[in-house]
Amino acid sequence: MELFWILLFSSACPLTLGQGVYARANAQIVHSGAACNVKDDNISERIYTIKEGDTLVLQCIVKGHPRPQIRWTKTAGSASDKFQETSIYNETLRIEGILRVQGGRYYCKADNGVGVADIKSIRVDVQYLDTPVLTVHQTISDVRGSYYQEKTVFLRCTVNSNPPARFIWKRGNMRIEQSKDNGVDIYEPLYTQGETKVLKLKNLRPKDFADYTCQVSVRNVCSIEDKSVTFRLTNATTPPMIRLSVNDSVVVDPGQDVFLTCEITAGFPPPKVTWSRYPGPLPLSAQVRGQTLILRAVTPTDAGFYNCTAVNNVGNPARKNVNLIVRSKCLYLLPNDEGTDAMGNLTFQITPDSNKDSETIQMGRDLKLSCHADATPQDKVNYTWYKNGAPVFNSDSLILLRSDPDMAPGTSSLEIVDMKFRDLATYSCVANFPGSRVPELRVDVNISQNSVTPPVLSVPPGGQVVSVREGGNAELACLVVDGKPRPPILWSRVEKDVLMSAGKAVVETPDGRLRLKNVSRDMMGLYRCQTAPYNGLNIKRREAQIQLNVQYPPIVDPVFQDVRSRNYQMVTLRCLILRSNPPRLTDIRWFRNGDFIRMPMPDLKETPELKFKLEPASNGSYECRVSNSAGMSTCTFNVSAQPYNAEFYFDTPNPVRIQKGNNYSYNLQWTQKDPEATDRIIGYWVNVRKNKQSLLSKQIDLKGKEPEKGVLLSHTISDLRIPLSYEVRLAPITTYSTGDYISRIIQYSEPYTYPRPSDHVCGFEDDRICGFSQDRSDVFDWTRQNHLTQNPKRSANTGPETDRSGTKEGYYMYIEASRPRVQGDKARLLSPLFNVTSVRGPKGSGRVPYCVSFYYHMKGKHIGTLNVLLRVRSIASVDSVVWMKSGHQGPDWKKAFFDISPSGPFQIVFEGIRGPSFEGDIAIDDVSITIGKCKQGNTVATAVLIGGSRSLPLASWLTAGLASVLLLLHR
């Protein structure tokens, strides 16, 4: 089959002309999982229907040479699905317990570097049916009331399903039909897409107080059973109402226990209470006891909005929220050079008279002192100001601002108006949480004519440019050499949108020294240092810039290169310098197998290059070591006359031949990659292994014939045992060297059977049973039998007396259901393997139709199941049920026939499944598989396939034109 496609492809695709058997990848998606149905939606898309929770198995069958690589991807059927961010490199995609969000279109991409990659897709439709949700609602004007008579009530039933569900309403056990009850309306609300049905009870009657059931169904698609929900409507039915035991906002200290109770004040049926949190889930330490949520030893991470929800499916759920705020403060001190302690999270600012553009404290001008605490919650912080230890109150010269609008939110300021000598003093700002166990924070600022001066920023001599080797440590210094008080220094990158090494935009250093560890080249550039606007004068920032220069070894190309050449030919090796810092090179040296190559000193300004004649003794590893003052980099070349690897050919047509003694032979085929790149290939080593033990090792002599690019080479491996598989290793040989081994697994498969020129029906009359075989993976075997060979003690109420023709000498195949067989045991009978590519389908069709015909006998009260499966063979085998019959079918032989259109070489599999007891024998007879669709009465079609295992001869090589002529003659 594969040879036919190669010939046809060569005539149809100019892209691969001149490449021999090299062919672009061709892919096909097949399924072998728990599919409910696979159908063609249109010409370009197939739909795979599967039940949620079942196993999805998709196989990407590929052809092409060299062997294509496979990649699975997906476009999501749901925005919440993330499968498309990953890829699976395997022929088989298997998803256990598939979820609804995993539905969508799956793509198989096959690529082997020849021509354009082939992409096939299949849409997976996941079927599901959730349990419906039934809610009860009143008319809008009666939301707060009870469900008394003469009120209108709406029962809303909602369900998630695929496909859309069908709804049935019941009162008690009686189905509600709108046409027979004027007191009800059944309708679908707008914008619900078939997922909701409403039962409207108009002017409630006494009989309307009853049990209501909403039953949903997807009509047993994928064997999904119907689901239902029941609600009892009474005159006491009311929606839920709740109240919280705390206020809308709760502020606590770290370490406290918190109890939040959600009390139900109304609702029937009794509502269920649940607690949730936003953002994020409930803390791991949270406990729910009844209606109370308990949070032990809370931390700032436990803060957030906690929601209590009460639901009884009547009306809307009742919800209440509480905002839990956990106070947080850092309790550490930063020493200050002036003797003033500044809290790490309590900062201050000294702002001279901004209207006068002043940077110093001057008498007769205004001055503002500001204080800010980083705390949660910010609005609960209380600030108190002191002057020389005495509390400060508002006056004409001192103005207190609880929240300064000119500063960051939560900043308190003290404005000194028209400063006098009496205002020179020590001012203290104290921040605390009233009623909290968190200690208060305090900062003191000494205001005098000499204690507050503008800062002076300076970079030490030679510090404007700092050079460091990649991987080392660096220190950038930007010092405050004058000024009181001395503020911290803030560091940032001058380049726009470039972050500091810590991942932050700004880094604070108290002493003005930025210490960088393990410096990398991406850290190179300009750094800006500037005074902070806090813990000092709030004036125009002083700033400077420092250049960080990161030195690194040269960046070379290639880092590694495999160089192949014939012996005694010139070879040129080049090592390109892409980048280097510093750019000046200090040394260039060449080495072979670690030994220095003596040569004239190369020009350090030119691209390093080495030319030499390759000889058997000069094969090896070559290194070009390029250095600058920062270090050394190496270009490595593996130079040899060793041949490239062979390329196994996986599309060999009918590689297996049956031999005597339960043995088989295998026709191994391959091509040679770039055969002219190295010395002439004179042969190959072939090694056959089983369980890593060598069974055969021999040399294949090409007898003076050189391999050509894209031309197949063949070797037959004999005396392999049926049905074992083997590992085959292959390596090319030249006059001077041997290439690397490549490996593949060869497996036994039934040889193809080709169309016969005469009609034949298999009645199993000879011992070879027309080439049928027993499946080795089943539980037991089919038995060949006629009337004369029947067991006299056999079960009398099951199995046929004679074959289909009624003669005692005629044979048939049957399964014996007596002991030791148990229910569910399977026996499979395999037809010969048929090659479908010897003929073509009807005009406009790419597949050939076949008619499968046989007689079956299924008599007995314990009959199980007879399945007929179509097994399509390619890189993987795919089984699909094409006919099935179960249970007692009467005492006579019955005929069955149906059409198939396989996509590749195929087998017909008769699978007998044992029923619950011994009276369950199943038999088959007179099997035929014919070309063409089944006709009325199943008359014989144009050619019959079953009848022997001997195949028609097939030329080993055909040109594309000859293949086309043969196809026309056959048609």
Detailed description of the structure:
The protein has 971 residues and is mostly beta strands. It has two helices and 74 strands. Strands 2, 3, 5, 7, 8 and 11 form a six-stranded mixed β-sheet that branches. Strands 37, 40, 41, 43, 45 and 48 form a six-stranded mixed β-sheet that branches. The two termini are 17 Å apart.
Core attributes:
971 residues; mainly beta; 6-stranded mixed sheet; 2 helices; 2% helix; flat; disordered N terminus; disordered C terminus
- The general outline is flat
| Overall strand count | 74
Structural class: mainly beta
What is the radius of gyration?
Answer: 43 Å
Mean pLDDT: 84
Unreliable residue runs? 1-18, 76-86, 140-149, 330-344, 754-758, 939-971
Largest sheet: 6 strands, mixed
